[in-house]
Design brief:
alpha+beta, globular, 216 residues, 4 helices
């Protein structure tokens, strides 16, 4: 239940807010004329495969989240550093396996409900595969994990896709993440979403981050 709460409560609250503010002309992908059987409009479906436009970069000195890696952000995605206080009531929400959440990049200003989250693992010798396996094991509702070797920019990486069963909404949705090794320990970049439709629509931002990642 802890992991379900971490994944779904922020998204459900965001959905409630957006539903109250949306109108048929606001371009929302879950309401209005022309919505598909999953509630996604034709323009939104077309945008799924369009490359994301760069809106800035993240990870370097002076950015919202200073990280062991840098990568480009999609336009209108808003990053915010996360500090997890050990022993606090909310500490469990910022911990998954051995990884600690250090940055949260909100897609709502760009029109989607979900986050790109950066997690910092432990151990400079921890491989990307081991970091991801540990990360997925920390999600109690994850099933069907599929791993593949890839690259993040020019950095060797491992990517995982898996399914999460969300108890609160009685649905299943796709999530994915990639991991790279750094001298400060592995970094995991994770993309969730309110549902699988939102996840697909946010993939260009995830791919922009992955394709532009650099160490340091």
């Amino acid at each position: 239940m802890r992991d379900t709460m971490r994944t779904w409560i922020p998204a459900v609250l965001a959905a409630t807010v957006l539903a109250g503010c949306s109108s048929p002309s606001d371009g929302g992908s879950h309401a209005g004329p022309g919505a598909g059987k999953n509630g996604d409009s034709a323009p939104a479906r077309a945008a799924e495969s369009a490359p994301a436009k760069k809106g800035g970069s993240l990870g370097g000195a002076g950015t919202a989240c200073e990280l062991p890696v840098t990568f480009d952000l999609a336009v209108d995605w808003k990053p915010q550093a996360v500090e997890v206080e050990p022993g606090s009531d909310l500490a469990a929400l910022g911990q998954q396996g051995a990884a600690t959440m250090v940055c949260e990049i909100d897609a709502k200003p760009a029109g989607n409900i979900g986050y790109l989250r950066v997690w910092q693992g432990k151990g400079a010798s921890t491989t990307p595969r081991a970091a991801l396996e540990d990360f997925v094991s920390g999600e109690e509702n994850a099933t069907g994990a599929s791993y593949k070797e890839t690259e993040a920019g020019a950095v060797p990486a491992v990517e995982v896709t898996y399914i999460v069963g969300a108890e609160l909404l009685d649905e299943r949705k796709t999530e994915r993440a990639f991991a790279v090794a750094t001298p400060k320990g592995p970094v995991v970049v994770h993309l969730g979403g309110l549902d699988s439709t939102e996840h697909r629509e946010m993939l260009p931002a995830y791919e922009l981050a992955r394709s532009t990642l650099k160490l340091g």
